[in-house]
Amino acid sequence: MRIWILTKKNMARAGIIALVALVAVGALYWGGGQAASSVFGTAKKELPVYSVEQSEKKIAISFDAAWGDEKTSDILSILDEYQAKCTFFLVGFWVDKYPEHVKEIDAAGHEIGNHSTNHPHMASLSEGEMQYEIKTTSEKITALTGKEVKVFRPPFGEYNDSLIKTCKGMGIQAIQWDVDSLDWKEQGVQPMVDRVLNNVKPGSIVLFHNNSKYITEALPTILKTLKDQGYEIVSVSELLLPEPTTIDTQGMQHSAEPTPTAAPEEQTEAPQPVADDSPAA
Fold this sequence. Notes:
The chain has helices at 8-31, 34-40, 72-81, 92-97, 99-107, 127-145, 161-170, 189-199, 215-228, 236-239, and strands at 51-52, 58-65, 87-90, 111-114, 151-152, 173-174, 179-180, 205-209, 232-234, 245-247, 252-255. By secondary structure, the chain is an alpha/beta fold. The protein has a single domain, classed as Alpha-Beta Barrel (TIM Barrel), CATH 3.20.20. Strands 2, 3, 4, 7, 8 and 9 form a six-stranded parallel sheet that branches. A hairpin with a 4-residue loop joins strand 10 (245-247) and strand 11 (252-255). Helix 8 packs parallel to helix 9 (215-228). The longest helix has 24 residues, at 8-31. The protein is globular.
């Protein structure tokens, strides 16, 4: 057995080795981009769109429809009065039960989105089951309206990486919200009004439910105030940015348009090398 004698010389060598190892790890972490993420297990999470980067005062108002239809026509009348175009996310069994309302929503110029077929917990499903939930209801909506369904909102707001990837593969955008009216809590008209108006900002997506208790009382005040503040209310698809886009860690969609570069004939000198801080391709 070899016995190491701790001398100043050995301590110096150990210090140098430790320093070299530390520098190597730091270089991997700071310069390795995606390689470093792989080593340290920090893979990017797939996200739906919660809000959209907007320089203009545009927002989207959305309604989830799964249970009941008693207030749907009144909601449409209020939206028409304030010239607001919105998005209604419909569950498949709601579409089956109220096809005339589906047509009424479409005829009024509103967007119809997909809210699943059976209102399941999507994150617990297999990829095939996810595809069924989305495809079945999209086909039902298209059969009634003749229009392609572009947006999908998962029931309960639940999702995982598999669901977002499945949506992308099916050519449909997964949508959440950044302003929740909490209308389902039935706390009264003013709490709904205050919650929306105190939290909305350009690019927000607001969540309501079509059959919540106070929706027809709160909606006129909310719409009038937003209009007075200069907001334009559009459908979710109209709010979304054209591709290519990126989604940040808060779920905000941003434009990913490449930065324009000068044409080769306009360059007067060779470009100088620039350090590349971006993740590895």
